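Tutorial handout. Part one gives the primary structure; part two gives the three-dimensional structure as tokens.
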Amino acid sequence: MTALLLTWLWLTAAHAGTPTLAVLPFDNHTGDEQYDALGVGIADMLTTDLSHVAGLQLVERSRLADVLEELKLTESDFIDPKTAAKAGNGVGAKWILVGSISAIEPQMRLDARIVDVRSGKLVDAVSAEGTRAEFFLVEKDLALALTEELGVSVSAREAAKVGRVSTESFAAFKAWSEGLEALDQGAIADAERRFERALSHDSGFGDATARLTELEGTLKAAQVIREKAMDAEAKRLFVAFDAYAADPVDDEALIAAVKDLRGAQTLAASERMLLGRKLLNLELDESVRTGTGQWDVSINEVGMWTVFRAADELRERAAILSWGQAFVERYPQSPQFNQVRQSLDRLIELIKKEERARTADVEENRRLQRREQVLDSHCTDEPDLRRVVEPCNAWATFLRDHPGVEARDHDLYVISLRYKATGHSAGYGNLIAVATDRGWEVDDLVRARDETLPKQLEAAQRASDRLKDIDAEGYRPYTARSDLGLLRKGGRFDEADRALEQMIRKWPEHRYTWHARKDHLRAFGDTDALEKLLAEMLASETKGDDAKRYVEEAIKDVREDREDVEEALADALEDYAGDLRSAGLLGAAARAQEKLWREHPSFRKPPELLLRAADRWARVYEAGAPARARALYEELLRDYPDSDQAERARRGLSGQAR
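Part two.
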């Protein structure tokens, strides 16, 4: 590991404190080698489960594996917080999780430690245990315990997703873990066999099925790449270099092959990378040169230049920095010296710009701003009253915990209105704390909490008492409709559901029953049920009023509310992508832009969003970015071949095909 590469890893770390977690494979401390692979499986399951939590971003296994390989970490390194922090820096994580399987029998025990990447210090430790037969519950317990220690809130829906069990078969889990380990080691065939064994133990093991399907796709893709790489030109050069390695006597044949490599226009960058390294592996003397004149250079120089150019095209930063540094130090008189130096200067300046943005907390500030916009939209525009309290609470807590985030007193007023609509008085504590901290007037909030809402809850209780006598003589449909509204304002939604059912049974065709049904469904944003209600009303001849119009308006209102939420979320993500791009964080901007396309394809014209995502990736200077751009350009041409953006996509592809 060169000092330059370590410097790069430090520069690319997310020092802005982004809530990103990287989970390293767990160590096996049971003393039984047959359980070594379980650490990989536990880490993968934790990564999958925690990825369901919106407030936490997980590092993909593939990204983490690349950095671990670069750092050449051994099993013992995983336990060292300082070394773990290096791995975290390499993938832009705020925290990194190191853990161990302390025991399997008689009780299974998992221990985990959270390391702060910036300081390399231990933040906290958690553990979970249970029987081996319930290993899947032990892992779930550890996942939820981690969110608590990290201070990440988990909604009921997210907790349900985390709690989903992929398999209850320990044998299937063990075989699947061994498959993952084999995959990490490049043993593709062995991995395939072990995934198949996992499925033989539990045919419903979704993770194993997914891995096997993915692996089969990888094998097919690898075969295609291999066949492409071994076309006539590439194969001839590989054979020529191998022949010289076996019998290094025919310098003229080698020089001719090297000249062909320099002039090759059809070889992919990955192929040229392999050929350049093969040349360097010949370990030739510098006196073995290519010819005469300006381009009379050593074959070693050609090899190193070829590797550097390929790394530059593939945008593999670590390789660019290490090979570029080696080239300028070894060949300062080379005709390519200035080009290499310019590429290095450009990349180093880009890394410095990204680091300045992170040091200035630009990425963190943009993320916080987007988080505030998302909570705002969910609290303000969500048409279902059952679902507004959680985002409103989260928004109020967010504003309380982040005094640096801009907010208006109107924001608190909006949250207050939503609390009033649901009878949620408990949330006013955060609102009053935010207003007090920011020097705003709190009288209205205090009055709402101490006077208005208590009266509202009392009215809901009286309505509940009256509805118990709904079958009594003298209890009218109008009163029932009114009492249903009071129950909803008191947050007694389940009770309102039951009362509506009683009203429908007693007065199935009364106009106030229809109005009550419309009010109820509108309050919970149930478009499907509203449309069903409208169809019933249109088929009925007993409604002599304008209730149908009211239902149609309710349907329109709910749809507009849903669209408002969608548009607000898309707006927030688009603003986020633009801000990141302006700050020079091009990789993060490209990921946000692609997320906008995937999650909100109707926000703009789909091909326009897709093209923008592809163009963003085409400008990103990091490994994998050219392939990502190419894949998006190809997706646009496949799905929207006649769009106005298709020609630009073709030009983008031609620029990628180097």
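Part three, for discussion. Residues 1-18, 70-79 have pLDDT under 50 and may be disordered. Residues 547-582 form the longest helix (36 residues).
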